[in-house]
Amino acid sequence: MQKQNVLMIEGTFPITMKEDVAHFNAAAKEILKGIHPRTAVVKLSCKIGVGEKYEEITDLTTIDAPEKKTSIPHKRGQALLIDLWATWCPPCQKPMAHNQEMLAHRGADWGDKVRIIGISIDDSADTVASHVTKNGWTKVEHYHQADSDASEKYGSGGVPHVFLVDNEGTVVFKGHPATRDLEKDIDALIKGEKLTGKGTTPSGAEEDDEDGEEFMDLDLATVNKEMNYFTSHIDEVATALGSKASKLIKDMVVMVKISKYDVKTGKFLTNFQNVNVLVGQKADTESVLPEIESFMKKVGSTFKQSNRVQAL
Q: Which of 1, 83, 181, 194 is the most buried (most CB within 10 A)?
């Protein structure tokens, strides 16, 4: 049995809240002095999100002239597709190849109304130049991040990650390139049409977590009461199950509470769930599960319950 209580304050806020976030991070650092970093994690950042105006990316270098700093401005009437990637990232290779293909097939039609740009987070511009040349991805505009804050402003913490900027200079999509038909999106932006679907929701809007976890406006006092009951009585369940549970290959009774602050509504949304994982002989799982469910009824009813039983 493992009990773990971790305070994790993580979040991404609109770039307009940059000063507030910096103030919060500084204050939290002082408060958490002397506390083990794995027990309390505070990591707030600001990014330019969907629905916000594009800010010119500066302090980049081109891969053929790494000694010279340059920038990527937005020109009114022009759509931008910017791809954050790396040569060492296997999932980045197919999207970058697709960028090359789009320009090879549609570049003449799009003309100067479209720019497709790759910003590599590799350590060296020379590495990127060699990789691009080897693969023949020469139609894409390639830059090395160098001293730029492109990843901090627009990234997601990983690559590949792309974002689209419309004719008016507004970010209209952010996400993984495989989740969209980017060629179709670019055609729509040229026509001045609005994008819809995954990744096009304005920053701060309520939406479920990307991995399908549901965040709801729950009463936090009730949530905390149920969580406290669970943590203070789970020993009783472990003792009661005893030898029954020991026969299973895997037996996990987990309570998870994750809260996030929704900037748009000014509310804390919470994902509160009980997950029970049982793996073993059918007779053993059937003898254990009812006792777990009986205990969870005593805990409360605010949480979402999920039983993952694999009977062998």
A: 83
Q: How far is Cα 148 from Cα 59, in angstroms, rounded to an integer?
A: 5
**Would 230 be classed as within a structural domain?**
yes
Question: Does 225 share its domain with 301?
Answer: yes
**Number of independent structural domains in the chain:** 3
Same domain, 156 and 77: yes
User: pLDDT tens digits for 202-216?
Assistant: 854 434 444 446 899
DSSP 249-312: SEEEEEEEEEEEEETTTTEEEEEEEEEEEEEE-HHHHHHHHHHHHHHHHHH-SSSEEEEEEEE-
Q: Are 199 and 180 in contact (CB under 8 A)?
A: yes
Tokens representing 149?
């804050």
Query: What's the token pair of residue 303?
Result: 């949480």
Distance between CA atoms of residues 55 and 75, nearest Å? 12
Identify the domain containing residue 300 by its residue range.
206-312
The tens digit of pLDDT for each residue in 54-107 reads 999 999 999 999 899 999 999 999 999 999 999 999 999 999 999 999 999 999
C-beta atoms surrounding 141 within 10 Å: 17
Cβ(72)–Cβ(143) under 8 Å?
yes
pLDDT per residue as tens digits for the range 116-156: 999 999 999 999 999 999 999 999 999 999 999 999 899 88
User: 80 with 152, same domain?
Assistant: yes
Q: Tell me if residue 227 falls in helix, strand or coil.
A: helix
